[in-house]
Amino acid sequence: MYSTWYITIGDLSPRFDRTLHEIVDKLFPTLKDTDAALEAEFYASHVSEKDVNKCWESFNDVAEGFGINRVEMIDICSPLQDTFEIKAKAEMERITGLLFDAMDTDENGLVDALEFLGALALLSAMTIPQKITFVYNCYDFNESGEITIDELTLAMKSTLTGLCKLSIGRSCPTELVLEEIALFAFRKAGKHPDKCITLPEYIKYCETTPEVNTWVYFFDAPQDLSDEYDLADSDLDVEAHAPIYSRAQSASMDGDTPNPLEF
From the centroid of its chain, how far is CA 236? Predict the structure, then answer.
């Protein structure tokens, strides 16, 4: 299975119209244009696990911190040049620069490397367990094989923030919603929130909760994974709420006000 990313060009600000079209043309040659809807469908199926891991290795080699500048991002993305069949180094640098501009929404000359790498992983051709593993390991800061509830919440927040930045005009789910999703993952694993959750436990949670699969991996998809892949519905009390909150509702939510999600 490969990941498909939809962006509605009509929703984008004029500043990013040309940027995204150039990224589509150069980095995603399999783009299928739609005449009426004006939607750009990005296929990242040619970005392999090996490619993503090479970018991760480049990040560790060139970056001094999690905030990376344009030059560092160009270096981090350089392993993708062959994958995208871009012959000229200058052209790859130019296209990566456009991607940097799309991620640098506050225009301070820095991009959160983990936001970018997490988004790249979720848009890649990796399997669902591989995607979960990559993002999980990014936030296993002490390399213990376990992460805390705060680290899990941060992993989801940063990765989804990266995706939202690349789909301009989209609202990221509130931190309150993400905290509740992380809490439920711990409860499903039989873990107290003060403890840590292991990678196998989190993979199992994601794989056995179709609504979380939908929310994390398809992000802007119109249908549930249980419909597309004939998966059994889960017993998650807040099922289907996360995708809803990732859109219009999240934009008007107050992060300090309790929401109707209950566990």
Answer: 22
